[in-house]
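Aim 2, interim progress: modelling of the 6-O-phosphono-alpha-D-fructofuranose-bound target.
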Amino acid sequence: MGKGQTLHAHLLDASSNGTIDDGLLTLILDLVRVSCTISDEVNRAGLADILGVTGERNVHGEEVKKLDMRANDLLIDAMRESGSVCGMASEENEDAIDASAKGESSEYVLFFDPLDGSSNIDVNVSIGTIFSIYRRKSERGTSATPEDYLQRGTEQVAAGYFVYGSSTMLVYTAGNGVHGFTLDPSKREYFLSHASIRTPSRGRVFSCNEGNTNTWCSGTQKYVASLKASDTAGKPYSGRYVGSFVADFHRNLLKGGIFLYPSQDQGPGKPRKGKLRLMYEGNPMAMVVEQAGGRASDGARRIMDIVPGEIHERVALIIGSSDDVEEYLGFVK
Ligand code: P6P
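Predicted structure of the complex, ligand included:
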């Protein structure tokens, strides 16, 4: 796997060595193709006003969609057109999305967050597309059934994300390590830039929204306070919080660190609640981070062991360098 190898060459190698089969290869290539369009439109979003996009119509008289809905439509249309999935679930759609007739013979079910952090587009902060892929449990030849969707994260066959930042990258795993590719927009081709990513066992960065401190359990409050103290080796940590999960996760994956979105107190008599979504934020990033040597927990359970009750299930998420997550668990157990 030489640095600079194209993503296509990498995927063909993975296909020939049996890491991915033809159906998964087709699905990943569909995602890659759509990501190039999303990247282009995200990077031009700021120009929209200048280009005469006013209100609901652009200069061509076409309806202007919010970019997250646009990304959602692009992904759904591409998957239905290619028939690469037997069912999809998106952060943007309340219900699961049936396959096209062609897709009913597919082995694969896809979850995605089409444009996570999209509220940051207007302030030019990196955002991303997160995806998670499962093999169906039901017989081929029909649309996916609830048992196909409600699988543990350990059942994922592939997962990853596109990050639209200073450059556009794909970071993915198919269970055989984590690999990062950077897009050359002039060629609409990704090139291997981060081979076999391993996340440091300990970082010096913590990422969380400290505005929520009063909703956290006392163990979390004590843990975050301990990161700021200077009475132990390696402390204080630096706080880095972009407010775009893909951007925060990606930085911590490469440099080391811990991202925390703990469960929040909802008031007397109400259960504590997480914000992030298990199936298209927690599980895919948990597969990536574990494949890179890190850990992902909800504070009590390994994220990928959680049996989902519904496709939009929320979860507390503590994810990143293994020693940092371990240290956090010591404060809350
Ligand atoms: P808060 C973006 O809306 C998002 O889903 C994640 O990308 C991000 O990490 C989180 O919410 C930010 O949430 O409550 O800190 O604004």
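The first helix runs from residue 7 to 16. The CA atoms of residues 17 and 123 lie 43 Å apart.
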